[in-house]
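ugh ok fine here u go
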Amino acid sequence: MLDKLFKKKDISVILNEPDSSTSGLKRSLSATNLITLGIGAIVGTGIFVITGQAAAMYAGPALTISFVISALGCVMAGLCYAEFAAMIPVSGGVYSYSYTTMGEVLAWFVGWILILEYLFACSSVAVGWSGYMLSLLDGWGINFPDQISGATFDHLKDGSWVWTGRMINFPAVFIVAIVSSFLIGGVKQSAFVNNIIVVIKVSVILLFIGFGLSYIDTSNLVPYIPENTGEFGHYGWSGIFRGAAVVFYAYLGFDALSTAAGEAKNPQKDMPKGILISLLICALLYISVTTVLTGIVNYKELNVNAPIALAIDRVGAGLAWLSPFIKLGAIAGLSSVILVMMLGQSRIYYSISKDGLLPKTFSKVHPKHGVPHNATIFACVITALIAGLFPLHVLSELVSIGTLVAFTIVCISIVVLRKTQPNLKRPFKTPWVPFIPLLGAAICIIQMLSLPWSTWSRLIGWSILGFIIYFTYGIKHSKLNNK
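structure:
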């Protein structure tokens, strides 16, 4: 039994699997496409939504330090991802890497956590998109019905769930459906749409930073590190670390990027470029926007779904002309995040299904468009339901812990593989192994420990559900164990 659970895939076997030519997935992504896909996924909820909430609830103006801490952990994890993506350029990302280093059962666990990560990332960004769209419509004098403009359920601080009186968050459901239709049309078409959106949203962000600097009120930045309330994670240094853990998933894009390696033209060379360049660009944007945002509006007032829109409105006439551009940029930007997260989610279903651990319908590829259409449709339905029913704060914390688990496993796997298979061809090498991977894993673990118990309990519940599925279905249908 243990032999089955921890049986590993040989890397040479993975590289020789029919991933592109015969299964239908098309290698059509260039280095530029990969960088813009990374930026498209990374720059979104972290800037347009979570910055305000994390500043208000955890770190205050010192959220900039939180972003630096998260960026350091991400750069270290990103270097590890780059080595794996160049060495094993196939769909599936961390799931595929884990299969070669830790065996099937742990690969399944990682794959299941990645499903959590991308599923709730898509859902939370869709809720943020809804907030900006409703704000934009309100500015145009269009009042969207309250019954279909918010989450059906809310989670209170005492741990209880309540019905909000609303039916569903319809705008969130709507954007998930629209983005999914682009994905079904093919990855090349999706990349083209994403490129246009990235140019728009980065331009808008640079406008906000450039013009917003002159409206910073330095009194809003004092105290820079608010005094801790006496409760762990609420301001002070513990708040900075909890803030870092919450915003960590804002750097999620390069993780999703690794799942598209099977569709890159030259993955050995271009995947490391896409991961590291997009990560560094986005870290600079995050830190700059957070500084301007908390300088314009006092951090205590930023716990809203559209904090940058609030900052623009607060300035008044001076930046009133920028308000519709910011809101449109946020809407476009969040759309591209949903697009890349949905792409990543569907490719995880595809990769796990190819190994027999999920039903084979998820690994069917559309004969014309070259995409896993059944996996994409399923991802659309389940994401839309969650986005329509649940509030943003619950979804974002679940994404953070899922991301941190995945990053930790990637960092540790690099060390394991360097020891067990030192002679493998590595087109890109993580520097200073084992120092960089172990430090990256340590930063991720510290941030995981900073998250509240309620988030951990949901992760445990999700993991138990995953193992039930594996032991009742996956282990019986595993292609590796049934050869």
